[in-house]
Design brief:
The protein is built from six helices and twelve strands. It has a domain of about 140 residues: Dna Topoisomerase Vi A Subunit, Chain: A, domain 2. It has about 210 residues and is an alpha/beta fold.
Length: about 210
């Protein structure tokens, strides 16, 4: 397996995800599907990493969807594998955990599908540590409730329009928690960010490998 996955990737991560990865000419391929039809492909061969825009989802779980208690949602399959690299205990749950990569531009239909499929699961998000990832956390919190809002960054402020009302939160402190407090909702979503890294879990993994 060490010849298939990137060097340094935890063997436990390799074993867990092996059946959901295809390897071609040394490149890891992750297929984003809708109704088991491949709509797009993510390519990972460090340092190259190409993430598609797709209405499909790269989805990993075992057993029955009703058994899943924890649903991890990220922007890419590589981010998910790299998150598990630093948090391998989540892989010990077997049938109680599921992972879903949405691609570069997540949409409401993907979240509606996942919420209906895994109706017993608590949502965890794995998006990047910058403002794009933090806004995505908020969009998912809204989409799971059948709601939406618009976000714009102007002069170091995140300007939000929700239910015809406008809110402002400084970019430096913007988070899902600050957003929910401002507009008065509670999603119970848990967000995960790579500590000490302004980017994604994939970037955090690559950075750690380059230090060795």
């Amino acid at each position: 397996m060490c010849d298939i996955f990137p060097a340094g990737l935890n063997p436990a991560v390799q074993v867990f995800f092996l059946n959901w990865v295809t390897v071609k000419n040394g490149v890891l391929l992750f297929f984003y599907q809708d109704k088991r039809v491949n709509l797009a492909t993510e390519y990972w061969a460090p340092p190259r990493h190409l993430v598609p825009v797709s209405s499909g989802i790269w989805l990993v779980y075992e057993g029955f969807a009703a058994q899943v208690r924890y649903l991890f949602i990220g922007g890419s399959a590589a981010d998910i594998l790299c998150f598990c690299q630093f948090n391998p205990d989540w892989l010990k749950g077997d049938c109680t955990v599921a992972f879903a990569a949405l691609g570069l531009l997540p949409n409401a239909a993907q979240i509606v599908f996942l919420k209906e499929r895994f109706h017993n699961a608590k949502i965890h998000t794995l998006f990047e540590n910058g403002i794009t990832g933090r806004v995505t956390d908020c969009k998912i919190a809204l989409w799971q409730k059948g709601k939406d809002a618009s976000f714009m960054v102007i002069n170091d402020q995140v300007q939000i329009t929700y239910k015809n009302r406008r809110y402002k939160i400084p970019v430096a402190v913007f988070s899902l928690n600050r957003f929910e407090t401002a507009i008065g909702i509670r999603s119970k979503i848990r967000t995960h960010k790579p500590k000490g890294c302004p980017g994604s879990y994939h970037e955090f993994f690559v950075s750690n490998q380059n230090r060795r």
